[in-house]
Amino acid sequence: MSTIEFRILGRTEVHTETGTVALGSLKQRTFLATLLLNPGRAVPLRKLIQSLWGDEPPRSAVANVRTYANRLRRAIPACASGGQRITGHSAGYELSLQQGELDLHGFTERANVGRAALSHGDYAAAARHLGEALSACRGAVLEDLADSDALAGLIAPVEELRLSVAEDYLDARLGLGEHREVIGQLREFVAENPLRERAWAHLMTALYRSGDPAGAVAAYADCRCALAEHLGLEPSPDLVRLHRAVLDRDPSLGTRTTTVHANAPAPRELPARCGSFVGRDRDLAHLQGLLDKSGPRIAVVHGPCGIGKSALVLEMAHRVEAQFPGGQLYIDLAAESQGTRLPQRLLRHLGVPPLEIPNKPDEAAAVLRSHLAHRQVLLVLDGATESAALRDLLPAGGSCAVMVTSRSPLMLGGAEHLALTPLSDLDGRELVARLAGRVRVDAEPAAAASIVQYCHGIPLALRIVGTILAYRPVRSLSWLARRLAAEEHRLNELSFCGESVREVYSAAYHAVVQSEDPLVGAAFRLLGKPGYDGCDIAKASSTLGSSAMKVEAALDRLVDLGLAEWGEQDTYRLPPLMRLFAAEL
Q: Could you tell me the sign of the dihedral formed by the alpha carbons of 469, 472, 476, 478, in that order?
């Protein structure tokens, strides 16, 4: 269980094992609330200033924001990894959150499970899960900051979620036949939210089923007056029909029967998560923030070979399984053709009978989108190399989510991209310790540090060296550090039990050679030569005998593919281990 909890479902609060954190002035709490409403994202300075002072900030606004950030850093405990909770950089300020540290995350997770049960007619399960979700709410969202006009746009969607979940909960209670028990709650709810017609409909239904049709008619009159007074509107057609049904004593208004629909088992296709997964707290928080949003969500996690894209996505997918009761689908795109049969495969795995699956790819894709629109499904597409084949798989509506891994960014409409970078030395040491044993690593700190540095933060390399040590318990860390020290032999050592850094790099390189402009492969080999670390366009153009524009395009393509990276002063270079592979070519 997390030792810190940030709360926005009610007053703005931060709780730790030692008690409630003093958050200071109204401005400081507004600053923190703005960060909490943007989890995993940097909030631009201008947006923070707007939240704090509106359109008339003081001249000292920037300095004041820095002061608030520094005071909150001192008040709020650091992350479990030791890093600061609030970080400032050129893009603005960002708050680091881990899984389970924001009350909204747990609320959303439980609410999604309850809503899925409600959609299947399982009112008992729905009432249980939705009730658990609402137990986290201590009032309106950020009720101590409700007067902030600048925060209103951020608070509104979260408050709408809270109110709609409350209505779902009352709907489930009605489904269980508890109409008399919820009348008091419904009267209180409509008194606080007089413009929510769904709640009025629930109250009318509860009163009618309790033998009080006159009360139901009076509730309709009260709703009509509220709408006219505040909005100048008449009740919706649905509410008018309900009113007519009450007047006609329509038999359909009788108590619903509690049912559980017998559906095909939801697919559970996720591979096992990586047992040595470490770090990536900020990346996980970013993905969690995306998955907590409403509507269809698409995330593309990209980065160079061996950087841990699949491990991150699978870790996140397992953490949010409960949010997707419709199932979790997984496709290893590297193991099969990224072509036109993917919609048919996904439909089969969703339980659609083969005779109902169209043979034409475009028709199958349309049927797939229709099925996804009514289910809460998580789709993991691992190892994508192109965008076109994936576009037809993406849901256009509903509550599904898609996570894609790729070495390069993809052109997928509405997708959020997350670029992975190497692990820190601290996280690299932790990964090796989990595999090789913490006692051995702590006994040889210098050798452990050398091994981690030779792996340059690449999780694949770190897992290999950790596994080598685990299967060679009589060998010391100093022994492995000596073997890794020589660059010309390092890739030979980074291979064990069928896992090889060289093989992964080779597969990526040959895919480029076969499918890309030959100049791209030539540029890659050039960057591996001595003296070309930090090569600029002019030098590369002269050596390759091609125009600067073509060479620049080839070098940029290497960066897009995760095979190269930009250096200082508009230069290009290869990551350290990739450079050793290129030198062998």
A: negative
* pLDDT reading at 443 higher than 90: yes
- Burial classification of residue 576, based on how many CB atoms lie within 10 Å of its CB (0-12 exposed, 13-18 middle, 19 or more buried): middle
Contacts of residue 47, defined as CB under 8 A and 6 or more positions apart, other chains included, come to 34, 92
Cα separation, 129 vs 398, in Å, equals 20
Q: What does the DSSP assignment read for 481-548?
A: HHHHHSHHHHHHHSEETTEEHHHHHHHHHHHHHHHS-HHHHHHHHHHTSTT-TTEEHHHHHHHHTS-H
Q: What is the pLDDT of residues 390-401, one digit of tens each?
A: 887 787 767 788
% of the chain with per-residue pLDDT over 90: 26
The rounded distance, in Å, linking the Cα atoms of 289 and 283 is 10
Look at residues 203, 196, 208, 279 and name the one whose alpha carbon lies nearest to residue 250: 208
> What token pair was written down for 220?
């309709």
Distance, in Å, from the CA atom of 14 to the CA atom of 567, rounded to the nearest integer, reads 41
DSSP structure class, residue 255:
P
How far is 177 from 173, CA to CA, in rounded Å? 7
Rg (CA), the chain: 28
Q: Report how far residue 11's alpha carbon sits from residue 20's, in angstroms, rounded to the nearest whole number.
A: 12
Longest CA–CA span in the chain (Å) reads: 90
- Residue 174 carries which side chain, given as an amino acid letter? L
459 residue type, one letter: P
Q: What is the pTM of this model?
A: 0.55
Please, what is the average pLDDT of the chain? 85
SS3 93: strand
Measured distance CA(198)–CA(580) in Å, rounded: 64
Tokens 């709810």 found at: 189
Report the Cα 320 to chain-centroid distance in Å: 9
